Amino acid sequence: GAVVSQHPSWVICKSGTSVKIECRSLDFQATTMFWYRQFPKQSLMLMATSNEGSKATYEQGVEKDKFLINHASLTLSTLTVTSAHPEDSSFYICSARELDRAHRGDTQYFGPGTRLTVL
Amino acid sequence: AQTVTQSQPEMSVQEAETVTLSCTYDTSESDYYLFWYKQPPSRQMILVIRQEAYKQQNATENRFSVNFQKAAKSFSLKISDSQLGDAAMYFCAYRSAGGGGADGLTFGKGTHLIIQP
Known about the structure:
The structure holds 2 protein chains of 2 kinds.
Chain A (H helix, E strand, L loop, with lengths): L3 E4 L2 E4 L5 E7 L6 E7 L5 E8 L5 E2 L8 E7 L2 E6 L8 E10 L6 E5 L3 E5 L1
Parallel strand pairs in A: 2-11
Antiparallel strand pairs in A: 1-3, 3-8, 4-5, 4-9, 5-6, 7-8, 9-10, 9-11
Chain B lengths: L2 E3 L4 E5 L4 E3 L2 E3 L5 E8 L6 E7 L7 E2 L2 E6 L4 E6 L8 E9 L9 E2 L3 E6 L1
Parallel strand pairs in B: 2-12
Antiparallel strand pairs in B: 1-4, 3-9, 5-6, 5-10, 7-8, 8-9, 10-11, 10-12
């Protein structure tokens, strides 16, 4: 099956610094990747949609200047949390869309997530 | 905007028994996809089953099956012969079929499934 990786899996940073999280599709090409945020014991909330070669589309309430997304290739999207603060501490999960030619729709595969702790 | 509601924060079932997790959703669209994802303690999201709204036949995957009631906007998950490895958070999710498939998922709040040995 399709595999999506994330790096790092866990990061601790000081308040005011920036952190970059990578999302890679390992055995397929992903024209679209998605970034989600999950607070403890809560559901996943879509933050933004990352399209290869174009600007990301952000959900309402998500600050685009704070959460910078770059999708420079068909296998890599990055999320940079700029000037991180303790309230940005969360679990960040990406997913990549694989076009399933056998079906009318498509399947999204999730990465293992990145736990960000901002001190 | 679409919403997904899971009214059972926690469910408990005896090993080998059958359990049904509930999910309802609200949408004005006629074409969409519904999913059940499992999130074990590792927090890796695992696709359990998916349903295309245009298909009347309920999806099944081994011990997992759904009861899709489009008119009622209901999408429940039935797990038969429950196993200890089924213990996890289960999320119901919705995705629009429009937008060229470039839409993200809308998730419910999740149901924590406990399997009693």
